Automatic annotation (TrEMBL):
<keyword id="KW-0032">Aminotransferase</keyword>
<dbReference type="InterPro" id="IPR004636">
    <property type="entry name" value="AcOrn/SuccOrn_fam"/>
</dbReference>
<dbReference type="GO" id="GO:0030170">
    <property type="term" value="F:pyridoxal phosphate binding"/>
</dbReference>
<protein>
    <recommendedName>
        <fullName>Acetylornithine aminotransferase</fullName>
        <ecNumber>2.6.1.11</ecNumber>
    </recommendedName>
</protein>
<dbReference type="InterPro" id="IPR015422">
    <property type="entry name" value="PyrdxlP-dep_Trfase_small"/>
</dbReference>
<comment type="pathway">
    <text>Amino-acid biosynthesis; L-arginine biosynthesis; N(2)-acetyl-L-ornithine from L-glutamate: step 4/4.</text>
</comment>
<feature type="binding site">
    <location>
        <position position="282"/>
    </location>
    <ligand>
        <name>pyridoxal 5'-phosphate</name>
    </ligand>
</feature>
<keyword id="KW-0808">Transferase</keyword>
<dbReference type="InterPro" id="IPR015421">
    <property type="entry name" value="PyrdxlP-dep_Trfase_major"/>
</dbReference>
<feature type="binding site">
    <location>
        <position position="142"/>
    </location>
    <ligand>
        <name>N(2)-acetyl-L-ornithine</name>
    </ligand>
</feature>
<dbReference type="GO" id="GO:0006526">
    <property type="term" value="P:L-arginine biosynthetic process"/>
</dbReference>
<dbReference type="InterPro" id="IPR015424">
    <property type="entry name" value="PyrdxlP-dep_Trfase"/>
</dbReference>
<dbReference type="InterPro" id="IPR005814">
    <property type="entry name" value="Aminotrans_3"/>
</dbReference>
<dbReference type="GO" id="GO:0003992">
    <property type="term" value="F:N2-acetyl-L-ornithine:2-oxoglutarate 5-aminotransferase activity"/>
</dbReference>
<keyword id="KW-0055">Arginine biosynthesis</keyword>
<comment type="similarity">
    <text>Belongs to the class-III pyridoxal-phosphate-dependent aminotransferase family. ArgD subfamily.</text>
</comment>
<comment type="subunit">
    <text>Homodimer.</text>
</comment>
Length: 408
């Protein structure tokens, strides 16, 4: 291929150093395959961190974007627009929600959710009811408010003083939640499956107990479904697999299939606390984003596709178990659907990045969820042959890392 003007070294020269991207630069994607500047092909198990729900350049999404691009790009929220109204209608018809607020990302959707929870409590109960309960190892975004609600100190360090009134508890510990919640609690915030925290699934009894405690203390239950939503676990949203309905739900990532969009979903009664002027977003509800997301939702909200997600998981798990039987590197396989975590055992703790880099060299793109967990969040419609090819690459990578030893 022709030598590009821009290389990985260009990143170090012109970009803020808050990321450490891999050595390759992908330039083209189709389905679950990606090609870099040198023409090397990769199987994509990363999915843009659970974003590319239908793979790269899905023809129906490309068509939806091109069609809308010829009509209307942006208006601001001084006006509404048809794609936003269509998408909001789809979301309310498919979920518990009656009202929708659009944003551009998961962090913005969570910011809106947390602000709404406090505003609702302020409106109905007074200023003292402002406390938010969240959980250790949770991740809710990178704004100052969302990083404060998130339960990972490393992301708050150096940005203090952080917003107050936030308590962090052990995830899946119902007794701790019962001891901490009070009449001053405005919201309990959780991911049904903690993503960045290591693909930790919420215990069904814990989630049901949290719902009951929120009802007892007039607190709102907020589900961050930025990573678990839009088909990722084999249901349209993960709450549908818990027997529990939240008061507020946030969604992003897969919602746009690669185009930036986020949304906060809630009931009519709770939404009423966001009166005119209390919150906003310049680009939220953008016609381009909503047109693409509408097509994503139309395709994904299909029982056959969702059942296919669960079947494809079994193929991944079987391949991971086969790798583990040979090399003994994983302690357990976590998650649901196509949100998969392969937790490294004590011999390989802290070495997840080594496996990621080795997999890349074998033509398989994976993620990590912290230093101890390999994460996979591929396209929901990834072909079986791509699963097999990608897992073959991962198997070679694991063999290579194991041969070198944990101290290499």
């Amino acid at each position: 291929m022709t030598q590009s003007t821009y290389t990985r070294e260009t990143f170090d020269q012109v970009m803020v150093p808050n990321y450490a991207p891999q050595a390759i630069i992908p330039v083209k994607g189709e389905g679950s395959r990606v090609w870099d500047q040198e023409g090397r092909e990769y199987i994509d198990f990363a999915g843009g961190i659970a974003v590319n729900a239908l793979g790269h350049c899905h023809p129906e999404l490309v068509s939806a974007l091109k069609e809308q691009a010829d009509k209307l790009w942006h208006l601001s929220n001084v006006y509404t627009n048809e794609p936003a109204l269509k998408l909001a209608s789809q979301l309310t018809e498919a979920t518990f929600a009656e009202r929708v607020f659009f944003a551009n990302s998961g962090a913005e959707a969570n910011e809106a959710a947390f602000k709404l929870a406090r505003r609702h409590a302020f409106t109905h109960y007074g200023a003292q009811k402002h406390e938010i309960i969240a959980f250790h190892q949770a991740f809710h975004g990178r704004t100052l408010f969302t990083v404060s609600v998130g339960g990972q100190q490393k992301y708050r360090e150096g940005f203090e003083p952080a917003p107050g009134g936030i308590t962090h508890l052990p995830f899946n510990d119902l007794a701790a939640l019962e001891a901490a919640i009070s009449d001053n609690t405005c919201a309990v915030v959780m991911e049904p499956i903690q993503g960045e925290g290591g693909i930790i699934t919420g215990d069904p009894e814990f989630i049901k107990g949290a719902r009951a405690l929120c009802d007892k203390y007039n607190a709102l239950l907020v589900f961050d479904e930025v990573q678990t939503g839009v088909g990722r676990i084999g249901e349209l949203y993960a709450y549908m697999d818990t027997g529990v309905t939240p008061d507020i739900l946030t969604t992003a990532k897969a919602l746009g299939g690669g185009f930036p969009v986020g949304a906060m979903l809630t009931t009519e009664a709770i939404a009423a606390s966001f009166v005119v002027g209390t919150h906003g977003s310049t680009y939220g509800g953008n016609p381009l984003a909503c047109a693409v997301a509408s097509k994503v939702l139309e395709i994904v909200n299909d029982r056959q596709l969702l059942d296919g997600v669960k079947a494809k998981r079994e193929r991944f798990v079987a391949a991971l178990n086969a790798i583990n039987a040979e090399h003994n590197v994983f302690s357990e396989i976590r998650g649901k659907g196509l949100l998969i975590g392969a937790a490294l055992n004590s011999t390989w703790e802290g070495k997840a990045a080594k496996f990621l880099a080795a997999a890349r060299e074998q033509g398989t793109m994976v993620l990590v969820a912290g230093p101890n967990v390999l994460r996979m969040a591929p396209s929901l419609v990834i072909p079986d042959e791509d699963i097999d090819a990608g897992m073959a690459g991962l198997a070679k990578a694991v063999a290579e890392v194991v041969a070198a030893g944990p101290d290499a």
